[in-house]
Amino acid sequence: MSERQSKATQVKNERILNDLAKYPGNDRCADCNSKNPRWASYSLGIFLCIRCAGIHRKLGTHLSKVKSITMDQWSSAQIEMMRESGGNIVVNSRINPNPDKHPLPLATDDEQ
Ligand SMILES: [Zn+2]
After folding, report:
1. How far is the CA of 66 from the centre of ligand 1 (A)?
2. Strand order in the sheet with 39-41
3. Measured in angstroms, how far is the CA atom of residue 77 from the centroid of ligand 1?
4. What is the pLDDT of residues 61-75, one digit of tens each?
5. What is the CA(3)–ligand 1 centre distance, in A?
6. Taken in order 29, 82, 17, 77, is the CA torsion positive or negative?
7. Going along the chain, which residue ranges are E strands?
8. How much is the average pLDDT of 87-109?
9. How far is CA 56 from the centre of its chain?
10. SS3 for 39?
11. What is the CATH number of domain 7-95?
């Protein structure tokens, strides 16, 4: 297993994550565009609001691995995945270049 994370590393990772969250495009939820997302999917490298994070959780960890920016502990590897993704705009244009043709299944999920 991986070694335990030192407090210093944890603090550093939180700082990097908060900086990434301010990056243009990352200040809004990747899925629904709401302001100030406080969650993120580190497998996809996108920032999400709490509602969309819940939807991603239901998709399963094989599709999206979700963590809270403020409440969860982040490993350096996960931070690196967030950094390498290029952020919400880059990831969205790669995964879903035609959102008009392929809208995200947002509202439908609430009724279940
Ligand atoms: Zn959202």
Report:
1. 13
2. 46-48, 39-41, 66-68
3. 24
4. 999 999 999 999 999
5. 33
6. positive
7. 39-41, 46-48, 66-68
8. 79
9. 9
10. strand
11. 1.10.220.150
